[in-house]
Amino acid sequence: MTAALIRKSDIVALPTYRQGRDEYVKKMIQYKKARRVRFNNDISILFENKNTVMFQIQELLHNEDLTDPKEIDEYIEIYSGMVPGAGELSATLFIETDEQTALTELLTKLKGIEHHLFLVVNGEQIQAKFEEEHDDREFTTSVHYLKFPMTETAIAYITNGSYEHEDVKLVLDHPHMNVTIPLGYDTLESLAKDLA
After folding, report:
1. How many other C-beta atoms lie within 10 A of the C-beta of residue 75?
2. Is the dihedral of CA 47, 114, 43, 180 positive or negative?
3. DSSP state of 109
4. How far is C-alpha 164 from the chain's CA centre?
5. Integer-rounded Cα radius of gyration of the chain
6. CA separation (Å) from 72 to 3, 6, 8, 50?
7. With contact defined as beta carbons under 8 Å apart, do 155 and 86 qualify?
8. CA–CA separation, 113 vs 24, rounded Å?
9. Share of the chain above pLDDT 90, in %
10. In which band, very low, low, confident or very high, does the pLDDT at 165 lie, cut at 50, 70 and 90?
11. What is the rounded CA–CA span in Å between residue 96 and residue 103?
12. Which regions of the chain does DSSP assign to beta strands (E)?
């Protein structure tokens, strides 16, 4: 698979986007349901691909009322890195809670999370590669961009089409949080399309 790069021609003009936005937002909420995996109430991971990244760009342009071609190019360049390349899965890890004090405590507690996230495919452990590491300070950030560099064996296992029998899970083995989440049928079906 080659990286599905985002081009300016992929971006829908703002007036046109706004006409169909309500329906598009509904569809994307539904689409992302299968791609979001929750570790608990405060931590989740969203597997990204061209569809999710395009949605993020379109929403940024909508929210910021952006039509300037140079600014649009900048957003495309910034967010295109989140689209998975050949042989990898891409994701955004969110650490979020409504209460600021609780969030600060959680971000301090989860310092070093970048070294403790794995995708386990049929017993094969694939460590997440985070875009940034925050070892130089006493807390982590609430949003992390990361990739899982997949092996040929792992790709073959996920794309074989028998998702109800798959043994694929996300493992967070941080000293302050140890969680294993098996990926469900819908998630694996969606990820298989990214890897096909």
Report:
1. 18
2. positive
3. H
4. 22
5. 18
6. 20, 11, 8, 16
7. no
8. 34
9. 78
10. confident
11. 7
12. 36-38, 43-48, 88-95, 117-121, 124-127, 129-130, 143-149, 168-174, 177-182
